[in-house]
Specification:
71% of the residues lie in helices and 1% in strands. The protein has helices at 3-23, 34-63, 66-72, 85-90, 95-126, 133-145, 150-159, 177-188, 192-200, 205-216, 218-234, 237-242, 251-260, 267-270, 279-313; strands at residues 25-26, 29-30. One of its GO terms (biological process) is transmembrane transport.
Length: 316
Amino acid sequence: MTATQTGSADARRDRAPRRRRRGALIDGVPRPGPVENVIKAIVLGVACLLVLLPFLGIISTSLATPAQVIQAGGFVLIPEGIDLTAYRSVFAGGAVTRALLVSVFVTGVGTLISLTLTAMLGWALSRRGSIGNRQLLVLVLVSLLFSPGIIPSYLVVQQFGLLDSLWALIIPTAVSAFNVIVVRAFFVGLPQEVMDSARIDGAGEWQTFRYMGLPLARPVLAVVGLFYGVGYWNAFFNALLYISDASKWPLQLVLRTYVVDGYQIGAQDLGTEAALPPQTSLQMAILVISIIPILIVYPFLQRHFAKGMLTGAVKG
């Protein structure tokens, strides 16, 4: 046997134990055994139950019969039957219906305005060499670090005459510095060759942004739009500060009034003269109504979520 063959045989013997050892590893980490897998499954199952049980209780209580809710003391985990009385009372045309329409308007219009301003500002900040680019970027970063207080914000809204106006729920929070930075990072990471090809074809800055930048930025804009939409839909503090007319309250402020403050929901609040179900059923029905829109929208944007956040955060 030659020296070369001897060396090859020794190398094969050296590699064999490594293969056996490597078979018990996953990316250099020991493969978990059956006991560890069972423990992980139990822990994850318990965590899922702890998360899902409150939602199940909220939905069940809103659908349970009034007699079962009263008998259970206000919280039902498994309803004996389905009773939609609470939802019929809520949608009878009173305060909750008005608040739902207000929330839909604020969320839809606010998200559209915020997305438009954020995309345009992110594009402008990504164009190096434009006039005032660096100074404007510094202002955005400063606003990200330092936020105005409640009193200065209230005084600004008052001076612009926005008190008791739905625009007070949109304009003060129309642009988020964090979202601007994310969108700018995405535009900075676009290949320069794509921009150059558009300019060679005679496209100006606005046409390049509209026909090249926006279509490519669809994933990150979907994520940013989800952030804005959830923020507008869940916001109640601005309404608490700026809106004194109860007919202009969004759904979340009405929900806070009924659930957190313990305000008793009466027939005059729901615009109905029929007998009302228990207060707990009404509160849980309003809570379900406030959750459903986000649960409906999120699955359509979820596929863009990871891609949009990664592409917007890798480069800056």
